[in-house]
Write a structure and sequence with these properties.
- There is one protein chain.
- The protein has 471 residues and is α/β, with parallel strands linked by helices.
- The protein is built from 16 helices and twelve strands.
- The chain has helices spanning 2-38, 51-56, 58-71, 83-107, 115-145, 160-171, 205-211, 229-239, 278-313, 345-350, 362-369, 377-383, 396-405, 422-425, 434-446, 450-464, and strands spanning 151-156, 177-183, 192-193, 196-200, 216-219, 242-245, 258-262, 265-269, 319-325, 331-337, 387-389, 418-420.
- The strands form four sheets. A six-stranded mixed β-sheet has the order 3-4-2-1-5-6, sandwiched between helices. A two-stranded antiparallel sheet has the order 7-8.
- α8 links the parallel β5 and β6.
- It is flat, with a radius of gyration of 28 Å.
- The N and C termini lie far apart (57 Å).
Amino acid sequence: MIKNHQKTWNRLYVILDMLIVAATYVLSYLLRFGWLQHFKLFKVEGRYLPFEEYVQCLWLILPGYLLIYIASGMYRSQRDKGALGLFFNIVRVNIFGFIYSLAVLYWFKEVDVSRKSLGVFVVLNFTADIAFRALLRYILRNIRSKGFNIKHVLLVGYSRTAESYIDRLLANPHWGYHIKGILDDSMEKGTKYKNIPVIGTLSELPEYLKNMTLDEVAITIRIEDYAGLGEIVGICEKSGLHTKFLPDYQNVIPTVPYMEDLDGLPVIHIRKVPLASAGNRILKRGMDLVLGILALLIAAVPMGIVALLIKITSPGPILYAQKRIGLHNKEFLMYKFRSMEVQAESAEKTAWTVYQDPRVTPIGKFIRKTSIDELPQIWNVIKGDMSLVGPRPERPFYVEKFKEEIPRYMIKHQVRPGITGWAQINGYRGDTSIRKRIDYDLYYIENWNPGFDILILFLTVFKGFINKNAY
């Protein structure tokens, strides 16, 4: 069984990780003071530690890196974790590792250790970490997809959550889960969902836990059956098996909540919004100001050319300001290059742009397709009405319409709207599904971090400017 080998595998991962740290640390010295000197990439000045003393510092660095790896959850099961989350975790580990290395060497007065060699070490260790984890992930997923290294799971309770869990496990065979069956009192024995059968009742749970070969138990009872949850948990814990609880609250709490410990009392927050934190808001605003000013300087000349073309090809103003709904449901004026013929304000408020819209000017078609018409919004970012990254803001008329038709639509106004966003780089721009767009916006809101913003900006450069849905 997997649970019997997990500790052995974790010990092996620890050994391999520490070998990687040691190897990249040694290699960083050889590169800094040896091979790179031939290419004159680093000039050696002053005193530096000889190789033997430099290597001895590993006894200070290795224990800290091990604790950082453990605290960051690198040895927890990664079978159902996304590649992006793993990547950011490795980034975090190496940042903290670098800070720890500087701090501990300063504390022990090892002032002659080259800071540049430590920088080379962090880059090498990050690269080796990524390569090792990617190779390990590839090998394990292939093994699991062929029926090996499987976790055997019993579901306790038939519910919408049970169906959703089965859907995901069957759609991802590389996660390596095999569902043995479902125990439930409300469904007849032999009833199947996607070939997963109901094999017994809840009263038979102790017997199945004793006689069935299992790695995990997933409690998936309906919300109306929660009165018996305590008894089910008690039975599962007596078996010694790892037990999961999948709450059946989709129609009550329509998102992934997070927990807070209030002096020993668990509190469930219905929605996790990292930007509700003052520190995160300040960090994001600082990024917007620095990158926004830089973007404005870079885009100044192209914006001047576009302004001239608009002026000589179509009568009317170069820019137009349109009312949009932003942070905390407040109206603001969003600026764009004018891409349409001048029209009455009453028509503009409620008209949705469609394919081959006759109102779009010739130059307007180009700047809409390439998103150049959005460049004046950099000024909105600097003013504080918008952010570089966030949900796209909508006109008041459509906000009133969508908030009645689309669940959770108004949650997007808990953060500043953006020029680009997670929905936009995934193709949900222009005349596309509003429901899908909101799903992506909510994912961004609930999973925000600085690295996520940088990733979205990076992807926008390569795939976000050309908008096939812009008419």
